[in-house]
Amino acid sequence: MSPWTAQHVAAIRDDEAALPRIALADVARVSATIDIWDAWPVQDADGRPSALAGDATLWMALASPRFPDPDERHGHARIHLFRKDAGGWTHLGPAMPDGFSPGSREWSGSAVLGEDRRTLTLYFTATGLRGEPAPTFAQRIYRAEASLRAADANGPVFEDWRGLTELFVEDPRWYMASDAGSGSVGTIKAFRDPAFFQDPATGQRYLTFAGSDACSPSAFNGLVGLAVAQDDANRSWAIQPPIVTAAGLNNELERPHLIYQGGAYYLFWSTQRHVFDPAGPTGPTGLYGMVADRVEGPWAPLNGSGLVLANPAEAPAQGYSWLVLPDLTVISFIDNWGPPAADEPRRFGATFAPEVQLVLDGATARRKA
Predict the structure, then answer these.
(1) What is the pLDDT of residues 216-234, one digit of tens each?
(2) E strand or H helix at 16, and its extent?
(3) The domain that contains 51 carries what CATH number?
(4) What is the pTM of this model?
(5) Which residues on adjacent β-strands are paired with residue 157?
(6) What Rg, from alpha-carbon coordinates, does the chain have?
(7) By residue range, what is the domain housing residue 240?
């Protein structure tokens, strides 16, 4: 397990990683009735968004009804389906039918379309328990399948949901129970965000996920977990030791995911300034990453510090939940992007952020100018 340490974070120069400031012209809502945040494509096994007719792609994102306080969305999160084409984004509704998921909320994951171009496998986080009177924070990693129905007047949809299976549970040798923390922002422990990766060099399939280090006495004990497929159908998975730990530094390494470029493996995750140990040093809210010669590591921080992209100092929470695609396009969502109106607790964008492009060169990563 490779450490991400205070010494690495102390080397950050976030002015070099700062993203452009989001402006009003960038805030194009997908829907007037829902807020969206964490997003991922319906992908091929190699990680690329699956192309449909007309070069359209399908995406999933967490969504909820709009609330006066945007933080309320987390207690109502469901995975919704979207179509992206030359005309922009179209909201297609919830991905899974009512009552199918075993949780009270659906949190992030990844989705893979099979070689038959019809069978979908969704890996996702079920949080809490269906029907619970108050939200709890136990997180479980599930797999389910569905069939893609050809587009009609309502757009493409997935139907015949089936095979709902919990893939693996926390191994207490490495992973803390996900309900061990409190429910307050920044203290929730993790066992969530499964991201599928097929190694092009070996064909082996992996899931990375966000976890919490059971071996650390620190309250700031985020890590990146790993599981390995045990069969060709990707129905059986075995949990592995974590690959990166931020014990003593940071509580949440969210939505970790892998890509393969130029013979090297790159691991990326998102985190926020307020989940670093306040004793310091702390980094900005941004996209972080490491590089290795193999999935199991050892991993070395990109740019010497781990920081790849950061919100600008004048808008430190303008975006979040960055996802790097195999062509090095980076997607995210617009968070607190500007001064709130008089009747708003904060100015929450609740839509897709402008895309940016990365350049990778060994252990160096930067935004393409």
Answers:
(1) 999 999 999 999 999 999 9
(2) helix 14-17
(3) 2.115.10.20
(4) 0.96
(5) 149
(6) 19
(7) 2-367
Q: Spell out the SS3 assignment of 170-213.
A: CCCCCECCCCCCCCCCCCCCCEEEEEEEECCCCCCEEEEEEEEE
Q: How many CB atoms lie within 10 A of CB 140?
A: 20
For position 148, what pLDDT does the model report?
94
Q: Are 289 and 302 in contact (CB under 8 A)?
A: yes
Binding-site residues for substrate, please? 37, 108, 192-193
Sign, CA dihedral 2-4-5-9, equals positive
> What is the rounded average pLDDT of the residues 265-274?
98
In 3-state terms the chain splits into helix, strand, coil percentages (rounded to 5) of: 5, 50, 45
**Side chain identity at 167, as an amino acid letter?**
L
Inform me whether the pLDDT recorded for 343 exceeds 70.
no
Annotated binding site: 37, 108, 192-193
Measure the CA–CA gap between 326 and 46, rounded to whole angstroms.
8
Compute the C-alpha angle 163/188/194, nearest 5°: 30
Q: How far is CA 353 from CA 133, 270, 356, in A?
A: 34, 15, 9
Q: Determine the Cα–Cα distance for residues 181 and 139; give it in Å rounded to an integer.
A: 12
CB 321 within 8 A of CB 270: yes
Query: How many domains is the chain built from?
Result: 1
For the beta carbon of residue 166, count every other beta carbon within 10 angstroms.
11
